[in-house]
Structure formats: structure tokens, C-alpha cells
Amino acid sequence: MERIFGIDLGTTNSLIAYSDNGTPRVIPDPETQSPLLPSVVAFPSANQIVVGASAKPLATTQPLTTISSVKRFMGLGMEHVTAADREHYAFTDGDGIVRFRIYGRDYTPPEISSLILTELKHRAEAAFGEEVRKVVITVPAYFNDSQRQATRDAGRLAGLDVLRLVNEPTAASLAYGLDKTNQGFIAVYDFGGGTFDISILKLHEGIFEVLATNGDTRLGGDDIDRRVADLLLAAVPANLRSDPEIVSQATAAAEAAKIQLTDADSTSMELRAGSTHVVCPLTRADFETRVADIVERTLAPCRQALKDAGLSPADLDAVVLVGGSTRMPLVRRRVGEIFGRKPHTELDPEEVVALGAAVQAGVLSGGHRDMLLLDVVPLSLGVETMGGVMERIIERNTTIPTTVKQVFTTFVDNQTAVDFHVLQGERELANDNRSLARFKLRGIAPQLAGLPRIEVTFMIDANGILNVTARDERTGREQSIDVKPSYGLDDEQIERMLEESIDHAEEDVSARLLIEARNDGAALLRATRKALAGGAVTAAERAAIDAAIARLEGAMRDTDYNRIRDLTDELNQATTPLAERIMDESIKQALEQKRVEDIA
Amino acid sequence: MSSTPASVAKRDRAVWPAGEPISCWQCGADRSANLFCPSCAAIQPIPEAADYFQVLGVPRRLVQDPQALQQRFYELHRQWHPDRYQTGPQGARSASLRNTAAVNRAYSTLRDPVERGGYWLTLQGETLGANNNRVPPELAALVFEVQEKLEDLRVARGGNGSADLRRDIAAVHAQLLERKSVLLAQLDETFARWDTDAAEPAVLKRELKATLSALAYLGTLIRDVEKELES
To answer: Given an 8 Å threshold on Cβ–Cβ distance, is A461 in contact with B82?
Structure first.
């Protein structure tokens, strides 16, 4: 049967894994050998797209056309975009879903994410030599309905059949549960690049039952990097402080320092801004003081989740750490303190979610018959009632799938449509919760007010995604219903994007080949100039080389990658005699040195 | 392939009243009250009318063994969970969704004694009703003390003596929890009497309603106090 793959679509890095006869394995990048694909999408020019390791350096040189951490924007509306976000990205202002503005074109977060998924898809296809279609994708446990829908849309846009969305901490527990006969209560603390989750599970004979979950979908390593970057930026002239290029460089330096401080006691950050060169030493103690409040923000959700599960720290049998941010010694210390035990770190915190996704993929394809995952809905779901109050219809931490039925009726005679507004969150007032969608029941037969009885079924499926259906209670007939997602894409928009992406598919491959050709050409040009500065060439050779350089440079300004390749070869040939002479020269030098040593 | 579960469940109890023959969505054979078709083994949807006891396949009574309920909950999920039918036909997928949603709702209601008692009353055509907001007489003194302390704390917030008040409220909180466990024990006792000797259902029903109302009232009060202690 068709293989199902597991994907961890992370804020900072993404991975793809598969189940090898019951053993989950990540698929490394064939070139870098790393399983981590940086979740970065860059647009070097209007019709070029680069994803992953080659896109990452562009974040500092072309910050406004390079999208990192797109996951933070999944399922969000423009009104959720902060001033800090605007320092890093260019947006198109308007209502509804977030739109990045790149070379005059709008890109929604699901579209950007689909480019990351496509890259992972290609990686797995290259590894297995077969088409990859069916996948399981992980999402933060605390993702709301809009964020989940956005992730599923990203999968669709990448041409994938998303069989299941699995919560990241739950996936991690599956990976941990594989090689142990774990029983009892465990806490999974998942602190990643952009999101934080805490899940409390009960493990019993292969059943992984989530009792409670909590978290923050906008809290992660990114926040720590920005805090540390502020240290550098404070020393930069005021007019450069919000320059996107400088902000990106400072953030990159901060991230590097954070990683070094995992093992080292002190490090130093550097930043060049205009004529200013900032050098900033940083000790681990100082770093920890500066970011302590960010780490503290993870602790209240931990307490709430324990309370919701009806447990105290002493009831737990194990605590598991997941996510790159849990490499920080401060995090490990604080988690150890709050749960009163040393957390487990045996599995690589950056791979464990992808491995768990592969285990779940194995379950869906009929393997691991003894294992079963019972997850919960992270946030309460309700409808807006008179006076702008949210009436809860599904409480948070309810095991999914779950169904609740409600009867709606009309308020005035001959009313033929009824609207309702679905919300998610824990607050009393509708406005304080997240709007998911507005529904309209249409085609109600005209009757006296209050007579029609439309039974609406709210169903949260095993993906944690809401499905709404309605029927006329009296006739039993399906009632038609229109859905307007508050911060999402409707089917029509997705269809249109899919059509466009087919048109662009060939262009995308060409774009990749062009970038590679330009990179190779640029590398040869640099090496040639360096050689010309040092080595002696005849006038004829020099003329031939100069001509080849001019032709290559001309071609590189254009987009014909085949021509760039040809002219790179030509320059390579023209410089061969020079290269050989330089080689001879260095051998002669080496020999001369030898002779001097011999004499001595 | 995955429409066939590892083992076809043999349900030992008549789940719902036998009526007209029910045919399997997949092969059309009469499957009666079986939840897996006896002819083609396909998963079948639970009827809408099944009550929570029927859904879980546990005896219809007020006293329930939490361990046994959990065991049933896990067993049914192993048979019916959507993960088992993900790559199967649409009919199997929707039956699996519907059945597991029913199991989840039934389990979350029956495992909690207060919810179970309330559900039992609705099955008898009764509701706890609107007198929910009235202070149950046996709690009146305690409620008065709690409200007074909470009000004092709100007034004194941050000022002198608020630490003392917090200590007082923590003590009241402990008292409330103790009261709750007494009421829960009382509920268990009423459950047991109902199951063994339903000679005076009217009396028992009244008793059940009073205890459940008191517990509901106490629940709200405890939540309020905890909110105040946390802030």
C-alpha cells in the first residue's frame, strides 16, 4: 500500500520522516546530510523562489523578500500583526487573512508554507523514487481551528493529501513511547522556535490519552533571539535601529550566541551597521537574566494543564522535553524545578516530533496495532449570543472526535436565513475570543417566528478541526449552510491558487536551476579575479580571460541558465593555463622551502 | 483492508430495542443491532437513540466502577477509532467518527458521578431546573462566610491585612473541599440505594436532586474562591 510520510512543519526547521517496518526514520537532505530543512522561503527576484539552507543567508541581505518563521502567521488576520512583525516583513494591509507583499504580489502564510512542504516532498521523492502524496503533518497542540485549517490548506497547495494533523507534543510522546513500556502520567514540555505547548498524557497499554493541554502559539526561541538582538541594536545609531537588514543581522547574531551559550559560559556578538562596529560580550548568567521572563511565561500554562488534568507534579511519572529551545540550560533547570524531577532528553528534541509523526503515519497505514492516540481540543468552542457573550458548546480538553447539537430558530416571521458566529477561546465576551467563521443557514421555509427548528451539529474531528452540518429537524432534510472563515481561505481561493501553482511549476524549477548557475558563475568570477591579482599572464591570455569574464557577467544579468553554464565553462577553460601556472608556482615554492630546511 | 478491525466485536447486550431489520451500509445484509456487520464485518453506526449506557455497553445503573468504565472506553476506541479507518471507504470513516464521538460523550458523562447523576435524572424526564441558583439550606452559613471573606479581600486588595485574609480564604477553601467530599459520599450512597432498592423512587429522586444541586452550587463557589486565590 502507498507509503504515508510524517512531516514536522516547524517554525524554524521542518523535517520529513517515514516508518521503516515500525522504526521511524528521518530523511536527510542529500547534499547537507542534515534532516533539518530551515523553514525559510526567499524570493531573490520576482520569479525566483528558494527554500531552506540556501534561502537562510538571504534573510540578512534581503530581509523583506525572505520569509522566516511563517508558522507564526498561520491562521491569523491582519489585525493580529504587531509592530515588531512589521520590522521583519512587508504586508499588504486589508481585512482577513495575513498577506505578505513580495515584488508586488500577495502571498498568504499557507502558500509560503506549501513551498516548504513541496521541498520536503521532493526530498522524500528523491529518496524513494516514487511520488509522495499521503502525509501526516504535526501542529502545535494549542493551535486553534483557523491555524489547523491553514496548515491543512498548505498541504493541499503542495499537492499533498493530509490524512491527519497530529499535535506536536502528542507525536513526541509516541516516539518516546515506542521503545519503552511506559505506563502512567507524563508531561510533554514542547518549546520550539515560535510556539510553546504543554500536554499531560496518561499512557496505558499502548493508549496515549491526552488529559489536558495548554500553551502559547506565539512564544518561542524567536522571542529570545529578538530580546538578545535588542542588546546589539541599542548600540547602533538610532536611524539604523529599525533597518530590516540590520535587525536581521542582529537577530542572526543573537541566535548564534544563544546556541553557543548552551555549552559555553560566555560568548561575544558582533554587528556592523554603517560605520559602527558593535562588539558585545555576553555571559550565560547575563543572558539568562535577560530572557528569564520569557521562560517564566511557559510556567503558568504548565500549572493550568496539570490542574485541568486533576494532577499534581508528584503524580507524574516522567517529563519529556521537545523543541530546540529546550536545549537552553535555563529551560531545563526551570522545568526540573516546576515538575520536581529531571526531564527526559534521550531523543533529539529537534527530531522527536517528526519521528512521532512517522509513527502516527504507521498507525494510519495499519501498523502499530497496539498503539492509539486519543487527543483533546485545546480551546473551548462556542457561538456568539445576544449581548456579545460567548456561549460555550464544547469545553476545552474534551476528547476528540466530539459532537454537539444545537437547535436554531428564527426571530421574525418569514425569516429564511439564520446567521451565527463561531468562536474559540476561554474568555466570557465574544470579542475577547478568536473568531473562527460566520455561518449562514439558508433556504429556510417561510414560517412564523420560532417555528423552524434547524438542528446544527458541531463536530470536531480527529484533526481538531470543526465541521458544521445542519438539518431541518421536522423534515430531516440537509439544510444548506454557507461558511465564511474569518482568517482563512475558502475552497474557491485554494482552487485558484492550485491552478496558478501548476502554471508556475515549470518556472519554479527554472528558478532553482538559474540560482545554482548564478552561484557557480559568481564563485568562478571571484576565484579568477583573485588569481589575476597574483599570477602573471600573457597579454593574449589576459584578453581572452577578460572577454570571457565580460560575456559571463552579461549572461548572469539575464535569466538563461543554460547560457550561464556554457559561459562558466568557457571562462573555466580560458583560465586553465593560469590555474596550472599558479599550481606549479606553489609546488615550486613548497620545494624551495624544503631545500632551505634541508640546508639548515 | 482497514475496514476490517482486528476482531469483530461480539456485543453481549441487546444494545437497543429490536425494531425493523437494519441493513449494512456496505453489503446490504441485515445486521440488526450488531456494530460490525455479521456478513461483511464493516463497522456500523450507533443509532442516534442509544443512551450513554448502551453506547458504552455497561449495565444501566447509577453505581459504576471507574476502572471498568475506562476499560470499556479504551476497548471501544481500539475498535472504532478513526485512525483505524482512515484509508477505508467513506461509510466506514463516517461510522467510525460518529461512534467514537458518541463513546467520548458517554464516557465523559458517566465517569463523573455528578454528571452521571444529572444525566440519570434527564433519562427519567427530570431536570435540575431553575432553582439551581437558590442557596441550598445546609450550605447557607458556609456560603455567607465565603462571600463576606471574598468581599473583604476585594476591598483590602494590596492593602493592610490582605495576607491574613488570603490565609482565611485558603482555610475556607479547604472547608469547601471537605464539604464537597461529604456530599460526594452522600451521592454514592443514594446511587447504591437506587440501584438495589427502588421502592420509593420519588423520595430517592428528591434526595438525588438536592445533593446534585448542592454540589453544583458548591462547584461554582469553589471556582470563584480559586480564581480569587490565584489572582
So the answer is: yes
How much is the pLDDT for A256?
Answer: 96
What residues of A act catalytically? 8, 71, 168, 190
Task: Report chain B (231 residues): mean pLDDT per 10 consecutive residues.
Answer: 32 48 85 85 88 92 94 95 93 94 96 93 78 70 82 72 79 90 93 79 86 89 83 68
Q: Which of B74, B86, B101 sits opposite A401 (nearest CB)?
A: B101
> Can you tell me the distance from the alpha carbon of B168 to that of A59, in angstroms, rounded to the nearest whole number?
57
Model confidence band, residue A592 (pLDDT cutoffs 50, 70, 90): low
Better pLDDT: A252 or B31 = A252
Least confident of A99-103, A168-172, B124-128: B124-128
Query: Residue A558 carries which side chain, given as an amino acid letter?
Result: D
Instruction: Read off the amino acid at residue A434.
Output: R
Using CA atoms, how far apart are residues B107 and A139, in angstroms rounded to an integer? Answer: 27
Closest-CA residue of A relative to B94 is: A461
Residue-wise pLDDT for A505-525, tens only, equals: 666 666 667 777 887 888 788
* DSSP secondary structure string for all residues of A494-541: HHHHHHHHHHHHHHHHHHHHHHHHHHHHHHHHHHHHHHHHHS---HHH
- pLDDT (0 to 100) of residue A297: 96
Q: For strands A161-167 and A134-139, give the pairing.
A: parallel
Q: Are A125 and A18 in contact (CB under 8 A)?
A: no
**What is the number of residues in chain B?**
231
Q: CB–CB of A38/A395 below 8 Å?
A: no
With H, G, I as helix, E, B as strand and everything else as coil, classify residue A114. Answer: helix
ipTM of the complex: 0.85
Give whole-number Cα distances, A390 to A179, A308, A420, B133, in Å.
44, 21, 11, 21
Cα–Cα dist B55/A196, whole Å: 37
Q: Test B104 with A363 for CB contact under 8 angstroms.
A: no
Quick one: pLDDT at residue A595? 53
Query: Are B104 and A164 a contacting pair at CB < 8 A?
Result: no
* B2 interaction partners in chain A (CB closer than 8 Å): 366
Beta bridge partners of A269: A280
Q: What is the CA radius of gyration of chain B?
A: 24
Q: Which chain A residues have a beta carbon less than 8 Å from that of B104?
A: 398-402
Whether the CA torsion A497, A498, A499, A501 is positive or negative: it is: positive
Mean pLDDT is highest, among A138-147, A267-276, A590-599, for A138-147
Q: Quickly state the pLDDT bin for A532 (edges 50, 70, 90).
A: confident
The arithmetic mean of pLDDT across residues A202-223, rounded, is 94
C-alpha cell at A436: 473562527
**Residue A285's pLDDT is what?**
96
Contacts with A360 from chain B: Cβ below 8 Å: 83
Cis-peptide into A401, omega within 30 deg: yes
Strand order in the sheet with A466-472: A402-408, A454-460, A466-472
* Residues whose CB is less than 8 angstroms from the CB of residue A54 and which lie 6 or more positions away in sequence, other chains included: A42, A515
Per-residue DSSP letters for A474-501?
A: TT-PBPPEEEEESSS--HHHHHHHHHHH
In the numeric block, the cell 577578460 is attached to A546
Would the pTM of this model clear 0.90, i.e. be above it? Answer: no
